[in-house]
Amino acid sequence: MSFARNAVGVLFTSAVGIPVGLAVGIVLARFLSPEDRGLYSIATNFAGLAVILGQLGWNTAAIFRLRRAKSDPARVASAGLAVMLATGLLLFGLLALSQPFVSRQLLDNAPPLLFFLAIASVPARLLTTLFGAIARGIGRFGINNTFRFLGGFLPLPGFILVLVVYDGSLVELLAIALAIQIVLALSQMLAVLRHTGITWRVDRNEVRESLRFGSKSYAMSLAGHIHQRVDIFMIAYMLADPAQVAFYAISLGLVRQLRLVPESIAVAALPELSGLAPSAAASFVCKLSRQATAGIVPVLLAAAVGGGLAIGPIYGAPYQASVLPFLVLLVSFPALTVWATVARFYIATNRQQTTIGVQAVGLATNIVLNLLLIPKLGILGAAIGSLTAHLLEGSLLTAVFIRHTGHSLADLFLFSRADIEPYRRRLRKLLAR
Q1: Which residues contact 293 (CB under 8 A, 6 or more apart)?
Q2: What is d(CA 115, CA 103) in angstroms, rounded to the nearest whole number?
């Protein structure tokens, strides 16, 4: 299956998923109080961080082992299944012990069951991300896209059932979310294993080589996801007001929805890049970056106008407080787009230490600025800190990429006549019909 077809499939899944994700956010905002919406964000982000902590870089390692090392898919699947199950169960046990501290410091002494339901999703989510990566690694993007769509769509009817039909509680909401995640994880695993097979003996060499490669991408992924979530945790701790977390979560969630498009292109590109020589991979990344850059301006303008006018009326009057942080975070979208494409070059060429260093600088910048700005400016200060850190990361990664590859800024960002020509040919063919 070609990269173009893979990319179109992933993009279509993301395009369908964006309105569904927005609808989920509206249901949560309209039928939960701002305080409960904030608690939901803290609990789910905490579980999400635990998932990243438990991945051990195995997802990118699985793709690398399948595409570049040409490992047997059954051995890759078996090793990943064994390690992710063990890691997920271990994390659940360790996190369960932290419940009193987390509930006291971050969750405003919410019922313990709320926290346990959130962290119980960790093993299932680890399996979901693992087998999604394996599906991409063996070229079965249809499986990956199907379950990505279902993972985004099924919470919507589930949440409507709990919150709208039965007027349920936050605990019941997390219970239905957990049930959906478990069913999807097991279904996706079985769908992928039909194509890879499984060995009942775990290959120690496969485990060792996956950990060796994955340790680098693990540090990169962990730093990136901490960067994405640290604002939520720092707001929860420093402001001690779940409603403020809810307002910021809406702003952040809307920007994350926009990120689905460049991230989807990067997801489809990683298996392709893993099979290319470094020089060819660099040229391929430049082409992707130019095409992504061409679409940034209209997206930014439409999002700024639409978000500025619609957040309050759609999510509810209290969420008017989300508008200004959203507009600030929106400015980081170009830097996030650059990161999504260029970072995959360093993963595919096994030089993740470059992105790790850049992310460490960005994360440290974000934390320092949050400490300075959140007490003075609240959630707006968190947005300014995040924006500054993302712009710094994007600028540093661009400079490093240019130095390493010999390409120029124009190669990365200036849409050329050669980039337009394929679209012109397709348009002529369409008009001819």
Answers
A1: 334, 337, 412, 413, 415
A2: 8
DSSP, res 72: -
Q: Is the Cβ–Cβ distance between 355 and 362 less than 8 Å? A: no
Residue 275 token pair? 């099979």
CA dist 97 → 41, 94, 103, 115, 285 (Å): 21, 5, 11, 11, 44
> How far, in Å, CA of 60 to CA of 335, rounded?
22
* DSSP type of residue 161: I
For each successive 10 residues of the chain (433 residues), what is the average pLDDT? 56 68 89 92 90 86 84 91 94 92 85 92 94 89 86 91 92 95 95 91 88 76 78 91 92 82 69 76 82 76 85 90 92 80 78 81 92 94 93 89 86 72 63 66
Q: What is the pLDDT of residue 184?
A: 95
Q: Where are the alpha helices (DSSP H) in 201-322?
A: 204-239, 242-274, 278-294, 296-315
> Alpha helix (H) ranges present in 349-432?
352-377, 379-405, 409-413, 417-432
Rg (CA), the chain: 21
Q: What is the DSSP letter of 108?
A: T
- In degrees and rounded to multiples of 5, residue 360 shows phi and psi of -60, -40
CA angle 355, 361, 363 (to 5 degrees): 95
* Tokens at 373, concatenated: 């700005």
CA distances from 312 to 33, 98, 251, 316, 328 (A): 15, 36, 11, 5, 16
Q: Count of CB atoms within 10 A of residue 403's CB?
A: 9
